[in-house]
Design brief:
The structure holds two protein chains of two kinds.
Chain A: E1 2-3, H1 17-27, E2 30-34, H2 37-73, E3 76-78, H3 80-85, E4 92-97, H4 113-127, E5 133-137, E6 144-146, H5 151-154, H6 167-181, E7 185-192, H7 196-199, H8 205-214, E8 219-226, E9 236-247, E10 252-262, E11 271-278, E12 281-288, E13 294-303, E14 310-315, E15 326-331, E16 338-343, H9 346-357, E17 369-373, E18 386-392, H10 398-410, E19 413-417, H11 420-423, E20 438-454, E21 476-484, E22 488-493, E23 498-503, E24 509-513, H12 524-527, H13 529-548, E25 551-553, H14 559-562, E26 568-573, E27 587-591, H15 593-598, E28 608-612, H16 625-631, E29 636-641, E30 652-653, H17 655-672, H18 690-705
Parallel strand pairs in A: 4-5, 4-7, 7-8, 8-29, 16-17, 16-18, 18-19, 19-24, 25-28
Antiparallel strand pairs in A: 1-3, 3-30, 5-6, 9-10, 10-13, 11-12, 11-14, 14-15, 20-21, 20-22, 22-23, 23-24, 26-27, 27-28
Helix pairs in contact in A: 1-2, 2-17, 6-8, 9-13
Chain B: H1 13-19, E1 38-54, H2 66-72, E2 76-84, E3 87-93, H3 107-124, E4 128-134, E5 138-145, H4 148-160, H5 169-179, E6 185-190, H6 196-208, E7 212-219, H7 221-224, E8 232-236, E9 242-245, H8 247-271, E10 275-280, H9 285-298
Parallel strand pairs in B: 3-4, 3-6, 6-7, 7-10
Antiparallel strand pairs in B: 1-2, 4-5, 8-9
Classes of the chains: A alpha/beta, B alpha/beta.
């Protein structure tokens, strides 16, 4: 608690006024000769204890009332932080700062949550004279010592970043720091807006945290300075979902798939203007919400054919959070269409290689570079620039599966064909599964199965751009393999078995074609069109992921690119960002390839990289009280809620409390001092003077009241 | 001894003249020395027929009822009630507590007025009047006499009486019960700051001696209702002991104590057939005496 008018405390001696008056009153007693001493002594004896308690109570209440009045006049300020700071003589204090984009939400004063929390911490803790301070922010995630708390305000720790925070990891770092410094007691102050993306409740780090705190030789207290959502605010966010380039004969186009989201707590506007800047040329679009909180839109923006590379910037008008109003992207020309063909059969591999290597546009693009390898050679290959893996062999073992899964998660495409052992009736070696799907047995259908149905709206068998269907129904299948596992069927044979299936994945694509492109088993090779379309579309999808490899998530930029941050040059983005935080701030950065190559790694995806915030940052989920209690189970945890647009001191005036306390005290004192109610007549009834005595007593009572 | 009229302000002739029309009667039979206005246990020569009695030799022949003899041929003597005077004995509490008075009159002054007025009326109707001034013991006594000159002595005694000393009313009343001859009218004037149960014994003792007992209980208004003022050091008028108290703090309890005490006194008076009169000093004593005398008429004793 601090005071706006501390000089008013000079009046505190006035609290002794009731006692002084009481003593003076005692001094000015009168002496009176008294006859009915008998009653007086009896009354005094019986009343002494109660009267003394009442008298002291009245004196105490009067004293407290004056004290409360003086404190109210001195305008006290109380802060939840301050309340907890009292008496907590921790040896060290560690501040854990969430610098994620959601902490950039601003109030009416223009102060963000991060700025507000840092300001409050600086104001409060600078008053209590702490000396051992450290800070861990969500960018560096390493403790750094503070010379003074005030230095937090202007330091890099108080500036915004674009990466998602990892609160449990930072808390573990705080515990480790405390253990390393052998602190007896440590206070950890967490400044966060409780976003689930930052708190990662499913992370195993929480378990580690609880165990490490239990094993900590000293005491650790966790305090959360929380900034929940500000209901009245309206916030919109924009991000690039996908970007690819469509090359025409005369002009090229950039196809941008964007997503604009709006807080559901506010009334969503019907439309939002989006400013698109590509290579310095700005274009304005209108995105309509149509009553939804999220709007997805696809733009086609023509660019000059000679502009092989470039970058772009999307922006929407300012709102409550400026950090999610921009999105950046890089346009890269991917010239190499690399395909890896893993096959055990020469015939099949020849057909597949042919289907992959023929360019869809003979005029402008070259065909894919197909590399045919044995399954055993696959692990030696780099998948960095591979768009598609065609696997016609026994399903990969665990180690290879992990590699392929990583490739798929990057956005790569995999098409599995039945292995030769299956069609020859040999027992499958290991009978491995990929993502829970495995080959079961080979089926010979003498009646030549036809494709009964297929998905025309998406995936590999979708209709062409001019609306024509692929001739899937013309395919004749003589033999095929049966699948086991959770699959999504894209094409179904007349017997009900799948011809083409997809395995659900978060990113990328994993497809199973149940027959082989051989005359012996199907007309895939003879027909040609369907197989060619399937393979080329899979390559295109894989290329999109390669283009996206230059679109990085803040804080998740590959280590190979961040090992030499000195080679990064800002092209677009926040000008105040220091170079050490380029990988954590939204923007477009140009990487000096020579410097990178001279380093330990080579950047993939070209010379430019666009860094954007993660998709999780736009998710509105907040950590609930129950969740927090569960995360800090058995730990010393307290929480105080902060709010934007508070006074800069971070404290609120509480003079009303003291004023109410004074009024309450005076009311109680008045009750204690109430004159006695009229008792029933004490003079004997038989006396004729009864009425006159009653009159006398009433008159006396009235005089007392007056 | 020089009379000082100003010091005898306890007798107001106008009050006496207004009260003269009210008879002063006893509630019990009295044994007087001369004829008077009060009923006697003996037969006498009044006009009120009492009974017939058989003639025995030696009876006064003038009292034979010849008509009864003519009708019955037997001798009967006609007897009549006797009227006598009484001995009115005042017991005046002259302890120091009686000197208390918040108004112009102290309790003792007030009691003097009652004694003087009643004494005057009694002597005027031929009754003998005596006075005992008591505190911790009998401080002064004036034997009962019906002479008119005795009134002057009574007033002189009253005039010289001062409130001093402690109260031992119970002991003194027991002593008086044995001292005063039977069948007297004993009027006690006191503030009765004693244990009510001890007073019960005294009154029963007096009743056992066939005394007609009246009690004037005198209290000052401030004693009934504690004045709520600033802190006060109370000094006991009898013992000199002091007590520092805040009247406002103990007023409730004080009222309760007084109420309980008065109820006890009243109960004792009823149970011992004492003619109890509660008197507050702020009442006119004439009104008090008027009610007292009227009450006596209604309760006049039979034979």
């Amino acid at each position: 608690m601090s005071l706006l008018h501390p000089w008013m405390l000079l009046a505190l001696p006035l609290m002794a006024l009731p006692v002084v008056i009481h003593l003076l009153n005692q001094r000015r007693y009168q002496t009176k000769s008294w006859a009915a001493m008998l009653f007086l002594m009896q009354a005094h004896q019986a009343q002494r204890g109660h009267a003394k308690i009442r008298q002291w109570a009245i004196l105490a209440i009067r004293t407290m009332a004056i004290g409360a009045l003086i404190l109210a006049a001195s305008r006290p300020l109380m802060d939840g932080l301050a309340g907890w700071s009292f008496g907590n003589g921790a040896d060290s204090t560690i501040f854990v700062l969430d610098r994620s984009p959601s902490m950039q939400q601003t109030g009416l004063s223009g102060e963000s949550k991060l700025q507000s929390s840092v300001q409050r911490i600086a104001n409060v803790f600078s008053k209590w004279g702490r000396s051992d301070f450290a800070v861990i922010d969500s960018v560096y995630e390493e403790p750094s010592t503070l010379l003074s708390v005030q230095s937090l305000i202007d330091s890099r720790h108080g500036r915004s970043a674009s990466n998602t925070a990892d609160i449990p990891a930072m808390l573990n770092k705080a515990v480790e720091y405390s253990r390393r410094n052998q602190s007896g007691s440590t206070d950890v102050w967490i400044c966060s807006d409780l976003r689930l993306a930052d708190w990662k409740p499913d992370s195993s780090d929480w378990l580690t945290l609880r165990e490490s705190v239990r094993d900590h030789p000293g005491s650790m207290r966790f305090h959360l300075l929380a900034y929940p959502e500000q209901p009245p605010s309206i916030n919109r966010s924009i991000r690039v979902k996908e970007i690819w380039r469509v090359r025409g004969s005369e002009a090229s186009e950039v196809v941008l798939s964007i997503e604009v989201a709006c807080d559901v707590t506010a009334h969503p506007p019907s439309e939002v203007p989006v400013m698109v800047e590509i290579n310095g040329v700005s274009t304005r679009f209108i995105v309509k919400f149509d009553g939804n909180a999220v709007a997805q839109h696809e733009f086609r923006i023509p660019i000059a054919p000679h502009n092989e590379n470039g970058w772009g910037h999307l922006s929407i008008p300012a709102d409550a959070n400026l950090a999610d109003n921009d999105a950046y992207f890089v346009i890269d020309e991917v010239t190499i269409r690399r395909v890896i063909l893993v096959s055990e059969s020469a015939d099949v591999s020849r057909v597949l290689k042919l289907a992959a290597s023929v360019s869809p546009d003979t005029g402008t693009e070259t065909g894919a570079e197909v590399e045919w390898v044995e399954p055993s050679q696959f692990d030696a290959l780099s998948l960095d620039e591979v768009a598609l893996v065609v696997w016609q062999a026994s399903l990969p073992d665990d180690s290879t599966s992990l590699r392929i899964e990583s490739f798929v998660n990057r956005g790569g495409q995999v098409v599995f064909f039945p292995p030769s052992q299956l069609e020859s009736g040999l027992e499958l070696v290991g009978n491995n599964a990929f993502n829970g799907v495995r080959w079961s047995r080979w089926v010979h259908d003498q009646g030549r199965a036809m494709v009964e149905s297929w998905r025309r709206d998406q995936d590999l068998l979708v209709v062409t751009s001019n609306g024509e269907e692929l001739p899937v129904d013309e395919l004749q299948i003589d033999a095929y393999g049966k699948l086991e596992g959770d699959i999504t069927v894209l094409a179904t044979l007349s017997g009900g078995d799948p011809l083409l299936a997809r395995v659900p994945t978060a990113k990328g694509g994993v497809f199973f074609c149940t027959t082989l492109p051989s005359e012996k088993f199907s007309s895939l090779a003879e027909n040609g069109v369907v197989l060619y379309a399937m393979i080329q579309r899979a390559i295109d999808q894989g290329l999109i992921s390669l283009v996206s490899s230059s679109q990085c998530i803040a804080g998740q930029v590959p280590r190979s690119m961040t090992q030499s941050l000195a080679s990064w040059h800002r092209v677009a983005g926040d000008q105040s960002t220091s170079s050490s935080e380029y990988a954590f701030q939204c923007g477009v950065y140009e990487i000096d390839s020579e410097q990178v190559r001279s380093g330990q790694g080579v950047a993939g995806g070209g010379n430019s990289v666009a860094v954007n915030r993660s998709e999780a940052e736009d998710q509105p989920g907040l950590a609930t009280v129950a969740l927090l209690q569960g995360l800090f189970d058995e730990l010393d945890f307290t929480r105080v809620d902060g709010a934007l647009d508070q006074e800069s001191t971070g404290a609120s005036e509480v003079w009303r409390f003291f004023l109410l306390a004074m009024l309450g005290a005076l009311l109680f004192e008045a009750i204690l001092c109430l004159p006695r109610s009229l008792k029933k007549e004490i003079v004997p009834k038989s006396s004729s003077q009864t009425s006159s005595w009653a009159s006398l007593r009433i008159a006396k009572a009235e005089n007392e009241t007056a | 001894m020089t009379n000082r009229p100003n010091d005898r302000d306890f007798l107001d002739p106008q009050v006496v003249s207004r009260l003269r029309g009210l008879p002063l009667v006893a509630r019990k039979l009295m044994l007087g020395s001369v004829s008077g206005r009060h009923s006697s246990p003996h037969r006498g020569a009044s006009v009120e027929f009492a009974e017939y009695r058989k003639y025995v030799p030696g009876d006064d022949l003038r009292r034979l009822d010849w008509r009864a003899y003519g009708r019955s041929d037997r001798f009967f003597v006609k007897e009549f009630e006797a009227d006598t005077n009484l001995r009115l004995v005042f017991v005046l509490d002259t302890s120091a507590s009686m000197a208390f008075g918040s108004g112009p009159l102290s309790k003792l002054d007030y009691a003097k007025r009652i004694v003087a007025t009643l004494g005057y009326l009694a002597i005027e109707q031929g009754d003998a009047v005596g006075l005992f001034c008591v505190a911790d013991q009998i401080k002064g006594s004036l034997p009962a006499s019906r002479n008119a000159s005795h009134l002057s002595v009574l007033f002189d005694t009253l005039e010289q009486t001062q409130g001093e000393g402690e109260t031992r009313l119970a002991d003194v009343l027991h002593e008086l019960a044995e001292t005063v001859r039977q069948r007297a009218w004993i009027v006690v004037l006191s503030d009765f700051f004693s244990d009510p149960e001890s007073l019960r014994d005294c009154f029963e003792h007096l009743r056992f001696r066939n005394h007609d007992v009246s009690a004037f209980h005198l209290m000052d208004p401030e004693e009934i209702c504690l004045p709520i003022e600033r802190p006060t050091r109370f000094v006991d008028m009898e013992s000199g002991a002091t007590l520092f108290a805040e009247p406002a703090e103990i007023a409730d309890r004080y009222d309760r104590e007084v109420r309980d005490y008065l109820e006890s006194i009243k109960r004792v008076a009823l149970e011992t057939e004492v003619d109890y009169q509660f008197v507050s000093l702020d009442m006119a004593y004439e009104k008090v005496l008027t009610q007292f005398l009227l009450g006596r008429i209604q309760g006049r004793g039979g034979r």
